[in-house]
Records
---
Amino acid sequence: MAKKSKILANERRKQTVARYASRRAALTYGPWPTAENFPGSPRRPGDQ
């Protein structure tokens, strides 16, 4: 049973992290983040 609660806690933590990441992206890049806006993804041609 301990293992199951550990897994559930991990899932909750992942959901929280995803929520904060999307909120941070919305604050940084505007309400509609696209793949281009995230660090580590290919930029639009012409962006330096």
Note: The chain has a mean pLDDT of 70.
---
Amino acid sequence: MSAEIIQFTTVVLYFLAGLICGVNIFIVDKSMRGTWLGISLLLTFLGISKQWDILSNWALAIRDSDWLYAWYELRQIFQIILLGTFLLFLMAWFLAVLRNSPWQLWFPISMISGLVLLSVLSEVSYRPFDLLMYKDLFPGFQANMLIEISGIILLILSAIFAFFFPKLTKPQNN
């Protein structure tokens, strides 16, 4: 399968998931609207990022500035600091979202968050994760694509479930 077709499909799935989660803002319980809005905005941003290749361009710009300002030798230290900071914010976001989320969102959000973590580890040139993420499962279909598309599809299914059964997806602390 062509990489362009897979990327286009992924972008369409991101936007579709963002749209379905956005529709749920008007359907679900009032306490859940912020969660669905946040997920919808995140999925829309990830779709735009995937289409315009923002993460790769950002990593390339950082590598170029490393060479330009002659601190390329210290990049591992800065990458570890950046990764640690990112993981701290990711963990805070993850806990904030899951605190009020219905149980159906836990696994898909975990998959998307894990993919973002693997992408960041890949961008900071952590070689073992590069080997894992870009291993071909099928000709032209890599592990990172499977994780990403599966997470998006599970989010879409969770959002559809919340749309049709809003009483079953109420937060567990209510």
Note: The CA atoms of residues 89 and 122 lie 18 Å apart.
---
Amino acid sequence: MAGQSSARLTLVAATSTPASSALAHAPANRPNTVAVGTIVWLSSELMFFAALFAMYFTLRSVNPGIWAEESALLNIPFASVNTTVLVLSSVTCQLGVFAAERGNVKLMRRWFIITFLMGAFFIGGQVTEYTALVHEGLTLSSSPYGSAFYLTTGFHGLHVTGGLIAFLLVLATTYISKKFTHDHASRAIVVSYYWHFVDVVWIALFAMIYILR
């Protein structure tokens, strides 16, 4: 009898072990809700820019003469330099993210400050270009081309400005807080999503406006 009872106890223990170990496992990590929300929001922003692209191509198809004449006013070498600076800012931004993931707040700040300055350079270049084009007579209301040009590049410029503000906020929180935490790193990653997005959109805009014309 004692042997049978011992065997039954051994069998019960063996069959209950998998269930117990399963319950002992740590819960699966869930995606960061802020990051997921940012990606969803950027998807809606992509639709917004898609509408601007559609507007640009529609106006160009019905005004080919105006497009050929007024697109000649663009300073392509200047815009190319400006574009290069913005694209390279994605590299510095990502280097800042890598530093944040390692918990190196000083290096993250350095790369994010460089990224901010490069983004500010881009906005300054865009303002310079606008000033030159206005002196040439190309304004928002001067022609369909002017409307399409300023709306597409202007809305993108506003998004870049928003990204610059986001960098300042992320940097400010790291200076205010005494300790660099996982939340700080998460904010840096989320801002990088946005920055990479505006950079990719600009590459498409540059190809559409300055190359295809």
Note: Confidence is low (pLDDT under 50) at residues 1-30.
